[in-house]
Amino acid sequence: MQSRSMTLDDLKPGQKGTISSISGVGPLVQRLMALGLLEGSEIAMLRKALGGDPVEVEVMGYALSLRRDEARRIEVVTGDAV
Amino acid sequence: MPSEAAAEARPPPQSFHGSRATIAVIGNPNTGKSTLFNSLTGLRQKTANYPGVTVERHTGIAMLGDQEVVLIDLPGAYSLAAQSPDEMVAIDVLMGGEVELEPPDTILIVVDAANLRRNLFLVSQILELGKPVVVALNMADLADRKGIRIDCEELAMLLDSAVVPFVATVGRGIDELKQALADALEQGPANRPLVMPEVRRAAKTIARGLPNAGRTALEYQTERAIIDDGGEAEKRLANLGGDEVAGKILEIRSSVGGDESLAAVEAKRRYIGIDYIMKRVETRGKPVQSIFAQADRVTNHPLIGAILFVLVMGTVFQAVFSWATPIMDFIDAGTSWLGGSVRVLLPAGALSSLLVDGIIAGVGSVIVFLPQILILFAFIIFLEDSGYMARAAFLMDRLMRQCGLSGQSFIPMLSSFACAVPGIMATRIIPNRRDRIATILAAPFMTCSARLPVYALLISAFIPQQHFFFGIINLQGLVLFGLYMLGIFAGIFTALLLKRSALKGPTPTFLIELPPYRLPNLKSMLIRLFDRGKIFLVRAGTIIFTVAVVVWALAYFPRTAAIADQFDVERAAAATILNEEALTARLTEINNAETSAYLEQSYLGRMGKTVQPLFAPLGWDWKVSAAVIASFPAREVVVAVLGTIYSVGSDVDETDARLANRLRSATWPSGQPVFTLGMAVGLLIFYAFCLQCAATIAIMRRETNGWTWPIFAWAYMTTLGYLGALLANQLGS
Ligand SMILES: Nc1nc2c(ncn2[C@@H]2O[C@H](COP(=O)(O)OP(=O)(O)O)[C@@H](O)[C@H]2O)c(=O)[nH]1
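That is the input. Now the predicted structure with guanosine-5'-diphosphate docked in place:
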């Protein structure tokens, strides 16, 4: 499978990916992990607000909103995008 | 309903808890926790504050068969890892930590059945506390519709706790839930497997060396301190144990986690366990499509969503201002009628005046805002429960970030245009404490409806009726608009200033769940509306009322016989020379002049004269100074006080042309007009900035849990108002 590494905010609305890593430590990362954003979790970009920030994603079947700066810390791989 | 309310008012045995068993209720946000709590307790609820934090202590009484138990509602959370003192409340209550409370006997966890996997994270943390646990598998109806089937027996076995499917909105499963809670209360502590056993062992060793050793609360707190790098538990432990303990913590972190943070280790291990459970208990079939499921396509659409948002907010405003007006007019009329009747029934004198001008007017001034506030609360609760609030935050986040805040500050700010009290209470949805306080301090700058009477009076008196652009733009309207903008800018400026100074900190994250749209439950909404209405009436009402009576007393006393005699003479003289018609008019004039003479030498009048030098640079004479002082507790009072001082009778309103005329013709002893344009504009600015509202101060104290912020806000806003008025007056003259 061809894959390409990018960060979560690069996903286009409707596009899916798998989290490959989350950079940084501390409270934010701990929160993300409690919410189920772990290495290997599937994640889908649902939509972006005006100007592309914040973004709305789907993880484990629920919708979560986060800012672009936070989305940038999450690396994802997609199978389809090449 | 009335009987339940009466039961609540009855003084509790020794304490609210007494000897009753306690059950803590916890769960992720948006799982239907409040709905469940309300369906178990009804109106038998109490809210107070925990010491030192801004979280509410929300308790209620429920009946399990014939056993009364106390339910403690904890704030919604995704994890027990606490990053602020506010989030630490959950651990403190569950373990009986710092808050001087016995730990609960049982824990009820509310779980969203349609979202089981994420919810199990918190569940797995709570199971490790070793208490009997009941899991309410709420939203069972929504899970069904999504085609999700959960094997409750298997889940109960795997979790070693009771599991009850539940639908909070209709109370389906309530008997089973009560039975499960009653059973759990009979059980002793449970010994469940730990996800981080090595950390618990290390925590025990460390806790043994600390002051207060031997308490399980301390052990658990230490465990969290080890895992949550930079969290609240670690800060607390640093205070207790110092460098030695800090060193030990670092050791354990590297020995258990290696390169990885323990938070990551915890999350991974928990989710491995959770995934194992999920495989065994959950099966997914074909979902039945709900009309709500696709709604986000529209409501969060960059363009359509924004238009819809404006429409929704427009409707809220329209409702708050137009639906409330007839009721408010009715209340106003009722108060005047009651006052008038009392005046007729009682002989003129201090008692009659206390009842009419003090008590009836004081109570009236509180109640008159109740319709607007309840309508506003009803909308806020509806928007919160339906899930739209999270969308509003999503849409407004970018904009609000420019002010140093997040999208969640938008609704509170907007609500403050009707009244800062519900606005400040709506800040509870903001999880970040710094953001929340910045929003609370910015909120009172928004032009609330109590400012409108003052604006209307001064604008109609001093801003000329001029039209520009072929009559489309009206100068008076423009000034009013300017005052609104002034408030908005001052609020933004304040939030920015605070976020750069006293409330400086890392950029808060904006991590919110967008829960699926749901139809709010009427009963639960009404209970919450009742609760918030009660807070307004009790907190704000008692203060406004007390203050109204105090202001009345200051304006009424002392009564000197000399004035009475002087005006009696005038009245007698008038009676001898005038015909009946002219006499009535003359007598009103004399009476008004008498009222104003009394006021001049009353304590309030004297205060006005004493502080006048302070306000002289703003161009105010003693009359304006006295009126401004009297309106510090409630700004809308100024119109009535000005009415009395300028002796047109105290029952004037802002549309009264007589008062506007009197103001225009008021002069200094030297003959120059008091109200110059600069001075009038300055006065408007003063009212735009100044925190003249005892109710807002009371709610600020309640929501920030201390006097620091309300005192700061008062001093800051008054200073700003003074400087603004000074500038306008100096420029204008
Ligand atoms: N369909 C359904 N809706 C529910 C259920 N429980 C709560 N709700 C709705 O979910 C929304 C959020 O409920 P609320 O009690 O405010 O959640 P909280 O944030 O956990 O306190 C409200 O609109 C409720 O009416 C349930 O069991 N089934």
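Confidence is low (pLDDT under 50) at residues 1-16 of chain B.
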